[in-house]
## 1
Amino acid sequence: QINADRLWSTILETAQFGGTPKGGVKRLTLSEEDRQVRDWFRAACEAAGCTVSVDALGNMFALRPGRDASKAPLGIGSHLDTQPTGGKFDGILGTLAALEVVRALNDAGIETDTPLCVVNWTNEEGSRFAPAMMGSAGHVADLPLAEILARTDAEGVSVGEALDAIGYRGEVPLGTQKFSGFLELHIEQGPILEAENLTIGVVEHGQGIIWYNGRVTGFESHAGSTPMHLRKDALATLSEIVLAVEKLAVDLGPNAVGTVADITIARQSRNVIPGEITFATEFRTPDAGILEALDKGLQAAVARIADKRKVSVQLDTIWRKEPTHFDPKVTGAVAAAAQKLGLSHRPMVSGAGHDSFHLATIVPTGMIFVPCKDGVSHNELESATKDDCAAGANVLLHAVLALAGD
Amino acid sequence: QINADRLWSTILETAQFGGTPKGGVKRLTLSEEDRQVRDWFRAACEAAGCTVSVDALGNMFALRPGRDASKAPLGIGSHLDTQPTGGKFDGILGTLAALEVVRALNDAGIETDTPLCVVNWTNEEGSRFAPAMMGSAGHVADLPLAEILARTDAEGVSVGEALDAIGYRGEVPLGTQKFSGFLELHIEQGPILEAENLTIGVVEHGQGIIWYNGRVTGFESHAGSTPMHLRKDALATLSEIVLAVEKLAVDLGPNAVGTVADITIARQSRNVIPGEITFATEFRTPDAGILEALDKGLQAAVARIADKRKVSVQLDTIWRKEPTHFDPKVTGAVAAAAQKLGLSHRPMVSGAGHDSFHLATIVPTGMIFVPCKDGVSHNELESATKDDCAAGANVLLHAVLALAGD
Ligand SMILES: NC(=O)NCCC(=O)O
Ligand SMILES: NC(=O)NCCC(=O)O
């Protein structure tokens, strides 16, 4: 059994790095607060007997040796970065529970056969730099290193510059750290476990994701003196796109979601008709065919709206990740661990994206979900109970023992 | 006749205070650039023999004595502030043409019977501080001084602080400067004169205006894991409001316009469903009954949308100005001046708001329009020809001579 108090107190301790007055965390990837939590994490892993290395994207690997040094380690972990107004569990629970597994094994004097590797992936959130799950994308070579390093935030700072700024551009080449498998604990970030009063989600699938960047170019003019029929209103155009995204997701649902966010109106003024707007939009669904239909549907809707309003709309697909199917051996070990511990559980689809989606493309991978209050995440109000966090960490421990060999 | 070259060169000279690379002007009210143009304007008026005073809102009055010192002067002028990406004619033409009238009268050695007063009104644009036409609103006591001084910009700077920062909080109490009438030259900011190939608009009416500030409060949550039916999406809500505003203006048109602009999404991130948005919206129409119907229609639409989406929408009316009807004696003098000068002309409704709307509530007032290219204003591409500017200034001169007595 893991130490529930110790796990809980590390969650509260790290929540101070970027802690907000409302009890959330603002710890954007590669920020000063991220550096603080990384330094803390490195020291804690070393104190737990691990050797820490950092790769060219700042991904952190804390190695705990096993009996068979020839085996690639079993990776466990998640991420420590957060949304601009995020919670203290998203990613953090999975990373600190992995550390707690190592500490608990140390306490119990257990050496696994396969080495273990606790991982903190860089920029899982995708809020400061797009796309999300960037560090793990680099690790599995889903995106080239040079392209990732060149991506910039809203202020024009590149990933490479941000890594240097906090001293976390590591020596280790991307992908050097091998794994025999990967296992990630995470809060569900959705309402299902709570609604069904269950403790453990055995994640079998992950939604496919498409991210787009868009730009509407109309024409700025006077809000009082420009007749309605002569307008090229970028905001009215965007409004139709927002409602089209929503309608596509609803029509092709129930297993599809679509969102528009991150709007910037250039040169705005209250009595100027908006002339230029940039926006981000996305679709997610576990079904590859529906993902394709959503994409086609959006392209058609945007073309129709732009044509009708005689404005130009540019839509760039900046990221596309097909649906993920986790490894039956790993999900089986998760289900068996829950069963053995007497914890209620059910198979699930992950609504959010996770680094494990990338790991699943190279090694047997699985995920464990625990409930979060009202299914709320990406919000400072995000909350999970100490008991559920401990239950998830115990399932992680027992699945690790089954997969890595005690 | 005014001096067309001199008028044109003052327009180009002042366009340097806040001039943009695209040939526009960014001279937000009470900014450093506004201070520069105000200093220039004061010096130019004094050089033309006027006495300049400044009131408690920074409105500038340049008095040219007449034969009958007992008469309140005829006010002529407009404003020198601009939109964030404005042009070099909006307001500026009317202010500098008024100065040119004084210079031309000086050159010709003409003393009018009624004194003249060249005016530069503070914050006509309403972009930095709402509402628009703020200085003239204070002058006619449409809004109390204390309330105006307390209005803040997006950075939280108040009108009072901004006046002090550029040294233009004057000694003269609001409304001290009396007028016997007011006359303002302005670019049309709409497409009609150009389309009909006419030079002079005799402005007989001004649209009524309602300005609202709005706030949508939904709930921030994860864009990937929150099912569509559980969302409280503030941006989707706003999108329906934008399209409702547009539809109301079209349905109650052709003499109505409606616009949503100046959107801020709180705490935005591309994979967070927008939870809170502030926005500005407005309607304008020359018909008081239609203005009322637009207001009622918006309130009903907003209530319906908020109810359907289970989000809260707050809508505050921050400004309402009923339609303006200019004085027949003044508009008659404008039409007669155009006729006498052989300039084509027609009666018009002003689409944009102007300080003259406020002046019309206290003294006989009128306006003169000249065409601008493609009807475009509130845009750096705003443009008017030297000939049209000179024609407008000549109509102003001759209407002044008729009203003030040569
Ligand atoms: N788990 C999680 O919140 N990931 C952020 C990336 C995303 O799914 O948008
Ligand atoms: N004339 C002009 O552009 N005024 C600005 C105020 C407004 O009409 O919105």
## 2
Amino acid sequence: MSNFAVLGYGVVGSGVVELFYKNRESIEHKAGDKMDIKYILDIREFPDSPYKDKFTKSIDDILNDGDIKAVAECMGGVEPAFTFVKACLEKGISVSTSNKELVAEKGAELLEIAKEKNCNFFFEASVGGAIPIIRPLHKCLAANDITGVAGILNGTTNFILTKMIGDGMKFDDALKLAQDLGYAEKNPAADIEGHDACRKICIISSLVYGRHVYPKNVYTKGITDIKLEDVQIAAKWGGAIKLIARVARLENGKILPFVMPMIVPYDNLISHVDDVFNAVMVCGDGIDKTMFYGRGAGKLPTASAVLGDVIDSVKHDRTVFSQMWEPSENNDFVEDWKKFEAHMYYRVSCSDYYGVGEKIQKAVSDMTNGDDRIDIIETGDKSELCFVTPSMSVYESESFSEKIEGFGGKVVSTIPVLM
Amino acid sequence: MSNFAVLGYGVVGSGVVELFYKNRESIEHKAGDKMDIKYILDIREFPDSPYKDKFTKSIDDILNDGDIKAVAECMGGVEPAFTFVKACLEKGISVSTSNKELVAEKGAELLEIAKEKNCNFFFEASVGGAIPIIRPLHKCLAANDITGVAGILNGTTNFILTKMIGDGMKFDDALKLAQDLGYAEKNPAADIEGHDACRKICIISSLVYGRHVYPKNVYTKGITDIKLEDVQIAAKWGGAIKLIARVARLENGKILPFVMPMIVPYDNLISHVDDVFNAVMVCGDGIDKTMFYGRGAGKLPTASAVLGDVIDSVKHDRTVFSQMWEPSENNDFVEDWKKFEAHMYYRVSCSDYYGVGEKIQKAVSDMTNGDDRIDIIETGDKSELCFVTPSMSVYESESFSEKIEGFGGKVVSTIPVLM
């Protein structure tokens, strides 16, 4: 018999309990052992719960029981989750977590303790909810040199952008709808300003490139500035604006992680990932590219990922070394994000459409030794010039914007294109 | 040091050798052990190969070495692969294979031997090439009750259909292009008649539902009858014709696997999976739905999957029980495919467009107690009536087709819609 405990009986924790008892028989078959939930930790009272006898307010009950093989941590936030998880791992109890803040801030330290104590710290549920991505990255794709990962890692912002794209809603209206439907919090900052996606790309970057990447070192821009006009002009050009979290390894050996809105061309499958769904595209030298898609959040989808990890904890009591990364305080292997190069979408307000257009065209021709031109998007509105540039770095784009202002244009929007 | 052997030095086998030596350092890191390829088995001579000292023509060299921890089987076909793989497993040597024929025909038997000998028979590469699907299904999604799996499991046919959809090519021309590009064999039957996809859905069905499903018991229809006209009319309605391999569990406990062309509505991500790419959508009670996408074939993509399994073999020397299924000779748990229910696309040739349309509309109204109607697709051509019916079984569709003939219409095409 393998007993486990659930920390936190909120949305995800209660989902873990529900899904476990619903599919207990097949879960036990897959784990190769009888299983049960012995404790549920929560500071609140649940007198009417069918599981009321399992509730405890003290982590010590779990730590001192001696018969707990695994713990599912679904509390969220760094503390007290960190203290509790650390204590479990130090007792040699494997922990599976859905807590992205915890992994993004303390992953390296907790993995190190798990290694010392020969148990596991699993975190499949911390990125992409139901989507299997952590295990495929370090197992199925283990033979690959991973050159980059890019995707949609936040469902709330994807829902908002989908409503802007598909229904022509303005950002504020789409946000309000997301809040009404329960997809966005009352204070939606963590989602719409990109911090949630940032934590997730930090976890992926750390796992893939082997050193802990901290959220504070990753350029993060949300979707609050995205205008309906740009969404519609991007569609004319042939792409969808999505909040993209991305990391790539550069030729100099550094990595370049970021979160920002990008235009995704329609021939990239990510552009068709809509509503609250998430997707992660992985590029490697063996696979070329492979994508994982599914619900990035929600009660049962996240619980599914946590329980998958718990089952693995029960089956394998040895540390999974391939899921380790090194601590790295200064993150000096993270490249300056402004060196990122991409085609850039521009919307330029101007009184002299053809005159400014000609000057911009000439400037681009000069920058590329006559090799390249801008790709003008015909909108029918001659008060604004919209176009996509050849590939340039963010630094180059900044000085290009200055040139445009010099030509008498006013740069309204710039959005990089995901290629 | 963990030595392994590669059986077969064709496209996939040579890819395994290439990818292993390219990424050896990181592969060894992930395996937690030094690794090398000690033997490559092939009946042919490779005197100019840098690995010429590793070649052998005799499986006995590998079986009797005593120092081989894992084998990558990349020969293809049932024999002699089956005899060789069986002999390896009986010696307790774990085998990872890319051979879908072998797994579809002999999976249950080989898994049973692996269990007896406490080693592993892995087959991630046998379905979906580079796409991680086997391990996610039995590990990451282990907490789910899987209600169905559907996808595009053959790259050659998807390339042909993409060319018909995107470039307006006729089937024969698209097939010729696929052959010229090396995507289709000179004798393309296994691909275009659906047998390749059938083997893969058999493997998925066996793994998900726990009993061996044989290809001969799975209804399989290829794409040779697909007309460019239907592709174009489907696009007008809002969907793409794809060769879909699907299995679902029915309320009576039986399963319903099949391979056939279906119209996939554009709001289903599968409709946007183009060229030689594959994708597998999995539905479960926890995850709702999740999709895996990538290259379904090719040298390095398939090698990536084989090597991922080899690395796991080296790391875990215990049998993975969750990847087992039971033998089942008669397949009486496979439901009659004609009980499958779907909306049906019809193209009906008729001299009296409005008269026949009215009769069909009335027949559908009678079948659904006045609740439902056909969804007529306006093509501008009144010599053919094109529409999508309410949901009906294949049996019902057959008698509905007879009725249409009675009304004076000639049924040119029927294609079910994937919902």
## 3
Amino acid sequence: MARIVQKFGGTSVADIERIRNVAQRVKREVDLGNEVAVVVSAMAGVTNQLVNWTTEISRLHDAREYDAVVATGEQVTSGLLALALQDIGIDARSWQGWQIALKTDDTHGNARIEEIDTDQLLERLKAGQVAVIPGFQGIGPDNRITTLGRGGSDTSAVALAAALNADRCDIYTDVDGVYTTDPRIVAGAQKIDRITYEEMLEMASQGAKVLQTRSVAMAMSHNVRLQVLSSFADVPGTLVVNEDEIVEQRIVSGIAYSPDEAKITLRRVKDRPGVAGGIFGSLADAAVNVDMIVQNVTEDGETTDLTFTVGRSDLDRAAKVLDGIKEDIGFTDMIADPTVAKVSVVGVGMRSQPGVAKTMFQTLADRGINIQVISTSEIKVSVLIASDYTELAVRALHTAYDLDGDVTT
Amino acid sequence: MARIVQKFGGTSVADIERIRNVAQRVKREVDLGNEVAVVVSAMAGVTNQLVNWTTEISRLHDAREYDAVVATGEQVTSGLLALALQDIGIDARSWQGWQIALKTDDTHGNARIEEIDTDQLLERLKAGQVAVIPGFQGIGPDNRITTLGRGGSDTSAVALAAALNADRCDIYTDVDGVYTTDPRIVAGAQKIDRITYEEMLEMASQGAKVLQTRSVAMAMSHNVRLQVLSSFADVPGTLVVNEDEIVEQRIVSGIAYSPDEAKITLRRVKDRPGVAGGIFGSLADAAVNVDMIVQNVTEDGETTDLTFTVGRSDLDRAAKVLDGIKEDIGFTDMIADPTVAKVSVVGVGMRSQPGVAKTMFQTLADRGINIQVISTSEIKVSVLIASDYTELAVRALHTAYDLDGDVTT
């Protein structure tokens, strides 16, 4: 007997038929004698509709009301799944965030889970009742509904698995696992059986949209065994685990890419203390996420060229912020390039294996792809290239690191 | 300065534009210096969609899950209206039933309001904040969401007005008041300026679908001044008040009708004590509402013919129940007629004025309309007729009691 948390995303619960299908998957775990808690997303499309209504009705944004509106999507699914389970003879009930209680901080619209009261849940789970919990939401210290930000249902599931001390957290989605790269780009992309948290984190934040980054980080810090698998196909998924659970580690596990980047270069920034803080502080205040940052010293020795990347959809906002502080900071020009992409090579094996970066640069050079910015961590190398070359680069790197599998069509 | 509860129905909040329109109506009361609490229905069509999902997914019906699903419709509207109010500079927040708390009994799907904690609400209202409350729902003793049954938002509004000791409860709907009869049938139907609770109760339960019966009964018992008015037109509505607030009382205030009735006759029922109790008890257990009941003694003196009406949609269910107890109760035949309608003449004035019933019977006889069953109360006379004659009867009675106004087209 094990305790399992299952999470089903929006496409997995898109309509009544699919919710019935989800009920069957839950039943399978119950029939194995397991205790099961299920976290559900809103039916596909519902959250977008709700978000659109809130933005249509008011440009001002009271995040507390936004949360009250948007959280209903998952509430609907939780009740429907409980009904579907009861319909096939499984004892089940829905638990809203405020009933559990699943407590978050007060950052409405983007709250963090702080504590989950598990007494009631555990009692029911042990009695054999399936708990169905709306993802993406909780209750704030103001006794109002909070939401965790888009994709937050993964985080709900992992947090719940941690709080319940679950043996496994299964994330059911519309793909059957984590691949060495995007199979839409590389036909020979292979499903990864086991991947480490660190790698998954890089893959997720580098644009492999299978799991929300935050949920992976949380799984890592609480040691939650994560499994990514398909709602629709009966095939093994990908297990996200500690490094020591992976016997044979490849040097490079996967190639991630993020096509929607924009590059900003500030020319001749006055090179004095506090300048970088001023620039990136202002961008952070405007909620612009800055990613890769490179600074070059110019010939005169008094100014510097500063280059960094932001999400493409943040470019206009970033430009506005920078325009506003131009006098203050002191730079001559701002050059924005919205046609860049980030490509990353990820693998824990590269820690012990030199030459990974060299292979990357060589491979790209061989294809005539210019590298604009480089950024590295212990287990990944990322480069910024012109976005037109994205697919070419991903394919070339996938081959260069020997990741291509058999192509079955 | 007054304290007002406003309630807006589903068609009044059917889309974002209409919710903005509602916000303007709320603003008008706020601008007058009034304290305002607003009760909202789900956007038109939403509740039906949610109900359909619950019935589609499971024929078994856990009313607690049904409630969790169906209550989301009003929750969405409450958040959206709060946003719309904020957008035009009005301080407002949504209050879910469990936040208030609006406490009900545990009859999920058809709960009764038991108590409303008004401390927090009153504090905010006095501070000038508009409270937006989802209608039709509350929180049960099991800490789970309850709903009040279809049309329950009227009841929410009246209960809230009573608890808040409000000066008025304005029910905004898609008609501009209560009419002497259905204007779709009688072109000369007139809007009633003031109507008593008792009359409104008869009009509502007799098929004038402007206000939910339960909400009128509650308004009467708590002395809540009710006003029915249009969300779309700026014209005076109908005020529902105590009899002493109406200076000149007509003898007959209105003609109500209910087209969807069915008549059941049980032939030669054994005439012994407990028989009627057995029949109507069994029907009540099956949630079949029985309305008009007539019993005739037959010639033999030992059996009786029993005739009564049920809602047409309940007929099959009723027939099944009766079939099941036929042996037990002892009757020879069951004759069902699904083609009957009930027409009622309503008015508190008839208490002091004899001859109202006579006028009704004469008018119908003159038109060749056969009266099948008669039922009376202090302030109404109802007859059952063949449903084909419904419109003819309503028009003739409307004229006979001098209710016709000028026809403007």
